[in-house]
Specification:
- The chain is an alpha+beta fold and 255 residues long.
- Among the domains are: 50 residues; 91 residues, D-amino Acid Aminotransferase, Chain A, domain 1.
- Helix content is 24%, strand content 32%.
- It has seven helices and 18 strands.
- The strands form six sheets. Strands 11-10-9-15-16 form a five-stranded antiparallel beta sheet, sandwiched between helices. It has a four-stranded antiparallel beta sheet with strand order 5-8-6-7.
- The protein is globular.
- The C terminus is likely disordered.
Length: 255
Amino acid sequence: MPTLILAPRYSDSSIRMRRAAVALGWDVMRLSSWQCPDDFDPDEPALYAEPLFSAAVAEQLGLTVLEPPEDFLTRLPGEYAGREIHYLSAGEARKLGGPLFIKPPNAKTFRAGVFANGSDLPELPDQEMVLTSTPVEWLAEFRYFVRERTVRAWSPYWLNGALARDGDEWIVEPEFAAQTRRLVDTLLADSRIELPAAVVIDAGIIRGFGPAIVEANEASGSGIYGCDPRDVLEVVRAATITRTSESISSESGPT
């Protein structure tokens, strides 16, 4: 029986994931702290929490949470990226002129955004890696939960500069959704692109360019927006593995 492991902090996504897991007959454990109970030995653990918490719990339980490589975006051919992207140290980034969009690769160590130049980067160790890119305007953005190179759940989350939501409804712009889905499906079928067995891919529409990949994130730490939590659970389940199976956790081509 799978066990969904949640962090102490409540969020809309974690509440919905818990309800879906209970409805499917899963066990659910919302930990009260970053320290697991001494007798906690869950069957088929599936972590769903912020990345730093997941990493701490995974270490205690002998697990690995799958995540895309930090330089994933820089490995993409130009037709997927849609802008110039570099993976470099904070020390190198500070020497660059601007404007620049700068973000942490995976962990949210500082707030991503457009900086007048590299010297405006927040205080970080010079050796810490960052991603820089040409600033672009995203007209819309969509989230895709992927397992075994197949989209299992998706949702819009950004439209025309604001959250793509009207009350309880998520707003889907059909043509933008169709364009980004075609791009993501093409990427998933592209044998040049290495991906973990479970991952989240965000894709959107760049003004003046068209569909492009926004970023990739670990499935176990990503908000679900309007996705069906039952489908997301199967992706999250595949994203938590025992360390003995780590060597077979990612693929280099479609299956």
